[in-house]
Amino acid sequence: MTVVDERILTRAECMDITTRTAGFARDGGPTDLVINSSWNGELRWARNRVSLTSDRRNIQIWIRRTIDGSTGQSWTNQIDSTSLESAVRAAERMCRIKPGVKVVDFQPPSPTLPLPKPTIWSDATYNATTQMRGDLARVLSEETEARGMLSAGFMKMAGTTSCSVQAGVESATASTERAGTKEVRPVDPPVLLYQTHTMAECSMTVRHPNGVGSGWAGRSGYDWAAIDGAALASLALQKCIDSLNPVAIEPGRYTVVLEPQAVYDLVLFLIRALFRLPAEAGNPPFALEYDQALKLFRTKLGLKVADERVTISHDPEDPLLGIQTRPAQMPVTWIEHGILKTLANDRPSHALPKLNDNLPSLWRNSFRMSGGSTSVPDMISSTTRGLLVTRLSNITLLDSGSILCTGLTRDGLWLIEKGKITKAVKNMRFTESPLFVLNNLQDLGMPVPVFSTARDEPASALVPPIKANDFSFTSMIDAV
Amino acid sequence: MRMWITGLAAVLMAVAVRPTLADAQTRLTWPPNTFDIAQYLTAEECLAATLRIRDSVDIPHSLEQYLSRLTFDQVVLAPPALDAARKCSARWTGEAVDLEEFGPTLTLFLYAQRDHDAEVLIRRRLATLSPNDDSTRAGVFDSIASTYLTVTPFRLGPAEQALDSFARIPRTTARVFLQFERLGLLLYLADVTGDTARARRAAERISGLASTVTEIEKGHPLWQYLRVVVYRAYDYLTWFDQLDSLRVNNARYAALVRANWMKASDERRDLVQFPVGEQAKPIESEFWFSSRAAGDSSVVRSVNGGTNAAIEKSRAPNPPRPTAGRISLMFFLTNCHQLGLRCWDLYATGKRIHQDFPDVELTIVTQTTGYFLDQEPPPPAAEAELLRQWWLDFHEVPAMLAVTQTQFWRLPEPDRRRIDEPVTNITQYSFGSWPVQSLNAYLVDRDGTIIHAGPFGRETERRFRQLLTILKNR
């Protein structure tokens, strides 16, 4: 059976591939499959002209055979029977080449873990056509061109299915049967874990032809209908115009108004540090002193690590976030009113009361951060002297113990004086920790969706703008 | 007609010789399965490749041995690893190799069984040393000794020579401590391989060295570990005296063994805590399971290991273990699912002991931990049942299984880490500097006296057999 019209495989088609592939297996043993099919519609433009438009489709099938403890694997992107059989044979040849390690310890059946049902499919994304993307790109670049600026941008709509299954597993409960003279144990029917999701993103940079100003705006998510391309284009253009002819100011500690994108860029490093095992091993930033009586390292779980207005959480079924899930992913609150509530495990921890406790969401590119009600203009008007930051880039982790990062401002940095934006400022390098920033908050705004830097996975975040004290800028840079 | 038959024959022949489409598939090619040594350019890379090959062969080999013959035999380097070491090291010679690569090259030569090149390399290295630079000389001799002791197969003779040279370097505390470690390893390997003369020399050297250790040096934290090395040396030197004493009675034997420990540790007679000679306390556990492999028809049904929150306690054996009037071996085991080969070693050795000493009572003593592999954390009864399936059903260890339900509490929310309370069996079988360690076995005589406590496996099997033979025939 060959996919002709559909861009991605349906559940029935995945099951058909599974059945045929498992049927080719010889010499017993389970067959593991991961079947991914994807469609990507992309458009890229630069200097106000479309430079690339593509419509890519791909199928990837990974097959692993296990025979008497030996494993072998192969890949194919063809779904006809001949190709599937060849891939199975290749995997089985690998089993014979590499001596396997027989299973010699007792292995009870793995528990069946619940799979969350996230909202990560959008018909608007899946139905977006190449023509539509081209028309939109023309609209986005027309105004920029009319204003004498250069725009470059990228938009993508994608649809993906992901299916994992294990076939040929001997039933633990059914009794053996006779097949001729041989006793065989029936196999359990394969259980498919099937997910579909869409991804959409649109980002645009506008620059002055002389390189004296730059503005950027972007959004990502799973639903193209929630992304207003025109609004993004207007915002990027306005930021470019406002950032023309920047002046240099002294580096130092400033009060900053971080737009949501900048907050996301920085807080991402905090989210990625929320691991339990390093803390239990005594590593900062979330470990405390060694408890001699209990002979373990205490952690900062239950202690205040951020401003009490900060709550960072994630729910895999949150319709506004939309992420691809795995079994046993449960809603998790990392920080609640500034108090550290959860640290993630990347493997089952033996000490917690429930298995699900061990595997909170690991998609740390997606999270929801609480906010307040102060708008960005209000934050600006209440600032005596500070900087307004659009976004941060090239961020590197300097010290994992304090989550100290360094990076650059980009695409719009403005000086605020006496409640007003007075001038555009040259970009600067910052050296700051999200932990310090979240403990030096003055104000928070309404959380809004931002552009996620994750690639090839649906991810998004809801992040507020913030105003914080004593944000450290350590040097100027010449890049615009 | 002829044309019809010819055509039919042609069709039949075509069908007969037509390969299957899958077999003729050329898009998927054979993966490379030859070892291309040309890609490894340094001795360090060659050594790493050799060790990878060794490990990839040794593990399945060990499993095959365990599953079929219940013995391990790993004192020789697997032929594929030997072949890899020889081919990869062929480009270097002892006379010409850069001395900057001394360490990995020496190791590689030994793995490739090019002992002559190794000796040449060592001579060249020693020739570069200043006679006044004691620190560097000590480091080089220590490296040489440890290399000879840790390669496969180890070379005890050259290691001993290197340690002799090391001993001639002026004494410092650090060097003395290093000597204890290396001599302790030499003693252990010589004992395991039956090289009694060399083992005795090593033990005597340790004994002599111990008499030079000052009181200040004995206050160093490292001495807590090194005094065990000294004890092992005394134990080795008096082993046959111990066996002779054991043939008479337990008290004389225990006194001799305890004297060795008191001499090594300087602990006062009235304060010494040591397992040998103590009375073995009864094992207290909530869950008991008998073993079909042991032919044990005495005790107990298995507990229903479902998710029933109510704990079902099974009937403990009567009389309690260790049974008075019987020789007992008790294995304290935890975390075997993480220790793999080391536990299989114990199972295999235990099965051999059971075959030759069927009257010896074997007991596995363990406790619940609140987890089992990747399962939902089971209640104690369910975890006990899983442990029974693991040890008694799957591995068929011929022992009774005693599972203690560990009492615990949890750190408050949101941490919730489990904190285990001390388990009675562990407390009662721990003595001062000799706590219960996983994979240790306790040998208990008919009158309940602990005769021996220590690691149990093929390397210590000979000792346990000697003790069991005496106890059985007494």
How does this model look, in words?
The complex is a heterodimer of chains A (480) and B (474). In chain A, the strands form five sheets. A six-stranded antiparallel β-sheet of chain A has the order 3-2-1-4-7-8. Chain A has a six-stranded mixed β-sheet with strand order 14-13-12-15-22-21, with helices on one face. In chain A, helix 4 (130-146) packs parallel to helix 5. Residues 1-5 of chain A have low confidence and may be disordered. Chain A contains nine helices and 23 strands. In chain A, strand 2 and strand 3 form a beta hairpin. Chain A is an alpha+beta fold. With 474 residues, chain B is α/β, with parallel strands linked by helices. In chain B, 51% of the residues lie in helices and 8% in strands. Chain B is built from 19 helices and eight strands. A six-stranded mixed β-sheet of chain B has the order 1-4-3-2-7-8. A two-stranded antiparallel ribbon of chain B has the order 5-6. The termini of chain B are far apart. Chain A binds chain B through residues 24, 74, 76, 82-83, 85-87, 89-90, 93-94, 97, 99-102, 104-108, 110-111, 280, 294, 296, 298-299, 301-302, 340-342, 348, 350-355, 357, and chain B through 21-23, 25, 27-28, 30-31, 33, 56-57, 59-60, 63, 66-67, 336-337, 340, 344, 369-377, 386, 389-390, 393-395, 410, 412-419.
Name the descriptors.
heterodimer, A: 480 residues, alpha+beta, six-stranded antiparallel β-sheet, six-stranded mixed β-sheet, 9 helices, 19% helix, globular, disordered N terminus, B: 474 residues, alpha/beta, two-stranded antiparallel ribbon, 19 helices, 51% helix
Describe the structure in brief.
The complex is a heterodimer of chains A (480) and B (474). Chain A is of the alpha+beta class.
Topology:
The complex is a heterodimer of chains A (480) and B (474).
Chain A (H helix, E strand, L loop, with lengths): L10 H13 L7 E16 L2 E19 L2 E7 L4 H17 L25 H4 L3 H17 L3 E18 L9 E3 L2 E3 L8 E15 L6 E8 L7 H14 L9 E7 L1 H12 L4 H5 L6 E5 L4 E4 L12 E3 L17 E5 L2 E2 L26 E3 L6 H6 L3 E15 L4 E14 L2 E5 L3 E5 L1 H5 L2 E4 L3 E2 L11 E3 L2 E11 L4
Parallel strand pairs in A: 9-16, 15-22
Antiparallel strand pairs in A: 1-2, 1-4, 2-3, 4-7, 5-6, 7-8, 9-23, 10-11, 12-13, 12-15, 13-14, 16-17, 17-18, 17-19, 19-23, 20-23, 21-22
Chain B lengths: L1 H16 L3 H4 L18 H26 L10 H11 L12 H10 L3 H13 L6 H17 L5 H12 L5 H20 L3 H15 L4 H4 L4 H15 L1 H10 L1 H16 L21 E3 L38 E5 L3 H4 L1 H16 L4 E7 L12 H15 L5 E5 L3 E3 L7 E3 L3 H5 L11 E5 L5 E6 L5 H13 L1
Parallel strand pairs in B: 2-3, 3-4
Antiparallel strand pairs in B: 1-4, 2-7, 5-6, 7-8
Helix pairs in contact in B: 3-4, 3-5, 3-16, 4-5, 5-6, 5-7, 7-8, 7-9, 8-9, 9-10, 9-12, 10-12, 12-13, 12-14, 13-14
